[in-house]
Design goal:
By secondary structure, the chain is α/β, with parallel strands linked by helices. The protein has seven helices and eleven strands.
């Protein structure tokens, strides 16, 4: 791939109150280590977002101020309340659907793949999610055997303990297996 093109790639990781902190922060960290531009986007109408374990994160930008025309990937961390808040945000769901229709990447972890299931975006696709949420992956070929599943331009993952694998898989699909392996070694992920 042309490195000049990759530099222009932009990803948006979305936060809502109640998000799972590990799934958000570790993924942003891994992507930035790979020199991938990722913006933290709040859908809460304010930049400070409070996670499921009461960790406050200051987002880079508010949802209503994002220009999605050059966004290559939408990332959705899970968390029960965070996923519920994202699922209730009509603007975000419309943008996720547009992203899918435009053939761009969508990545969701933990409970967040249920949003994709409810939107009908997983029909006929292999996917995974947090244990107990499988019935909400409408139309998907659900698997619990893998920590991370890529099917077409959709990446799904199981939960907090799979966050590093999830982040590294995003790096792999965007910048190649060698970059993902290099980061894994640098971060001493066994």
């Amino acid at each position: 791939m042309n490195k000049g093109v990759l530099k222009k790639m932009k990803l948006c990781l979305h936060l809502a109150d109640g998000f799972e902190e590990i799934e958000a922060i570790s993924v942003v960290d891994i992507l930035r280590r790979a020199d991938i531009e990722v913006e933290i986007v709040s859908i809460m109408g304010k930049k400070e977002v409070v996670g499921a374990h009461h960790i406050k994160v200051i987002a880079d930008v508010l949802f209503e101020n994002v220009d999605y025309t050059d966004v290559e990937m939408i990332i959705l961390p899970g968390g029960g309340l965070g996923t519920q808040n994202m699922d209730e945000h009509a603007g975000l769901k419309a943008q996720i659907t547009k992203q899918f229709m435009d053939g761009k990447w969508i990545a969701a972890i933990c409970a967040a793949p249920t949003i994709l299931g409810k939107l009908g975006l997983l029909a006929g696709k292999s996917a995974t999610c947090y244990p107990g949420c499988e019935s909400q992956l409408t139309g998907a070929n659900v698997s619990t055997a893998l920590s991370v599943i890529v099917d077409g331009k959709i990446i799904t993952s199981r939960g907090p303990g799979t966050s590093f694998e999830f982040g590294l898989k995003i790096v792999e699909v965007l910048k190649g297996l060698e970059m993902a392996k290099t980061l894994k070694g640098q971060m001493v992920i066994l």
